[in-house]
């Protein structure tokens, strides 16, 4: 917009004058948005710089296993927390080991190793953590179902008040409270 047409604009011109130019309308029809500014990515991390220069991905692949998530257990929910922690820890250590073995297998595969060597690297050795057996899985599920997972501290307090009033042997009275 060079402003050549704006010379005709008169601020004191009456609105009914047909020869008057409406500045807002003129600019509105001829307006072009400026382009968005492209920001350069500033990164002062040397590792990322050399990774990008060599063509590797900026963030390394995450092969860490998160493992099974243990539910939140509080005292008033009456879980066998010690045994559940032991079972979840056993499953977690096995998941961590398998993630490490998978990472090692991927590295061997990138180096061009034979499938027999890769399969051997994935095998569990003596003394390495085993996965949960079927009995341990069943025990874990049983222990999780035995606790009162839906209870809040308020429910526990109501249960205690019911036991104080009715006695702990009168479950119908406690439930009525």
Note the topology.
Blueprint: H1 23-30, H2 46-54, H3 81-110, H4 115-122, H5 134-146, H6 153-166, H7 171-176
Helix pairs in contact: 3-4, 3-5
Explain this structure.
The protein has 177 residues and is mainly alpha-helical. 50% of the residues lie in helices and 0% in strands. The protein contains seven helices and no strands. It has helices spanning 23-30, 46-54, 81-110, 115-122, 134-146, 153-166, 171-176. It starts with 22 loop residues before the first helix and ends with a helix. The relative contact order is 0.08.
Overall strand count: 0
The profile of the biggest β sheet is:
none
Rg over CA atoms: 36 Å
Principal-axes geometry comes out as flat
Mean pLDDT: 80
Helix content: 40-55%
What would the keywords be for this entry?
mainly alpha, flat, 177 residues
Overview in brief:
By secondary structure, the chain is mainly alpha-helical. It has 7 helices and no strands. The relative contact order is 0.08.
